[in-house]
Amino acid sequence: MPTTNLEPYLAKHSFFSGLDPADIEEIAGCAKNAAFKAGEYLFKQGENAEFFFVLREGHVVVEVPTARGHSIEISSLGENQILGWSWLMPPYKYQFDCRALKQTKVLEIDGRCLRGKCESNPRLGYELIKRFARVMTNRLQETRLQLLDLYGAPADRS
Amino acid sequence: MMSTPELAIGSQQGSLLPEIYRVEEVIPETHDTFTLALIPQEGEPMTFAPGQFNMLYAYGAGESAISISGDPDLDGASILHTIRTAGTVTSALRGLRPGDSLGVRGPFGTSWPMEAARGKDVIFIGGGIGLAPLRPAIYRTLNRLERYGRVRVLIGARRPRDLLFMNEIAGWPVETLVSVDRATERWRGHVGVVTPYVRNLEIDPGNTVAMICGPEIMMRYAVMELLNHGMRPKDIFITMERNMKCAVGFCGHCQLGSEFICKDGPVFSYETMQFWFAQREF
Ligand SMILES: Cc1cc2nc3c(=O)[nH]c(=O)nc-3n(C[C@H](O)[C@H](O)[C@H](O)COP(=O)(O)OP(=O)(O)OC[C@H]3O[C@@H](n4cnc5c(N)ncnc54)[C@H](O)[C@@H]3O)c2cc1C
Ligand code: FES
User: Fold this and answer.
1) Which residue, A104, A142, B125, B146, has most beta carbons within 10 Å?
2) Of B151, B161, B155, which is closest to residue B190 (Cα–Cα)?
3) A126 vs chain B: nearest CA distance in angstroms?
């Protein structure tokens, strides 16, 4: 029996699917819904990484602020994607800025709360580490492809 | 049976003899890409199937294989070719002005599997200049939307300034996703290579046909993601590019194993090409 209305959503989400209902309940206990307007920041570089996010609706961009005052966009994420892993590892600081490009609805999951639960429930911790490792591997591969210049002519790539 | 592209072997209408066409219009597309609208000196413009290509002969410079990029269902319309300036021939084509003439042989080759995709979901994935050979298939789908299931178009390019056909893409009444590797300050779309977006698509693997056109590395990663979704190699279609001379299967310039890209392709099912995709240098 779900204790919050977030549990059915989490159980169906591909990132969490296959987790024990008890684990889903633990995660849901650290989660709440939030919304960001277009242009609003979900987080900024250097801030304490208090949350990770499940994007329910909308579109966000991850960017690096530059000394010249503007930002360089490095990737964008949309519906159903998982955002943020800095909550998982010291120094628990966000490495980039993240801004909503349009009205964006998220599930905000409190990292400190979940870390505490993982310490006392290592099985849940291991499951989450495996899942985040997959997200990180995918992002690393995407970044490598971005460096490759997939679309250029062979001559442009040298 | 889906694994054979349509208009296969022996179907080409083109020959070794060029016909004279005139440039009706030169449409600038991006900083290095333009579209030539061509009409024949005599008679009606050719009919073609989506995915087919012509050999364009710029006098004094030589011939290049260029896919047809216009709407296959517009009777009597000029024939569009969208060209990225690469070297000698494409630079000479870039120099043409309305009224100038050039030689055209074609159309050649196999087409995208428009009939075989009927009743199915369709995913188009175009990277860089690869959107141009895909556009006739997209037009054909849009012209007959009732024949297809869910239609999605994924487009990738290096920078916003490299994106083709942006003015019209916004008006396509299907789900489209456009992503660039390097965004600029004013860019409001997706950032990142297009292939990971394939990972996040909802796909009904037994009822979907994918058509992919772009550089080979991009196609390789896109195919990988589609296979991970459980799609069958025979339902995934790609185009192959090789240097061409005769374009009718005589000279062997474009040969890849037993396949001649000019007449057995350029559109192939991945089932046919998977051996070659697994080779380091092919
Ligand atoms: C079936 C088919 C369809 C094609 N459709 C199109 C199309 O719709 N639009 C378009 O712009 N091009 C298309 N091409 C590619 C086009 O044929 C070549 O870019 C062109 O022939 C290059 O000729 P060139 O004399 O201008 O360049 P070259 O002087 O021959 O080469 C100049 C530089 O371009 C590079 N180059 C040559 N060929 C290619 C290639 N195929 N891909 C990438 N780099 C290349 C060379 O490595 C060299 O560095 C197609 C090719 C094939 C086989
Ligand atoms: S170009 Fe001559 S055989 Fe294909």
Assistant:
1) B125
2) B155
3) 24
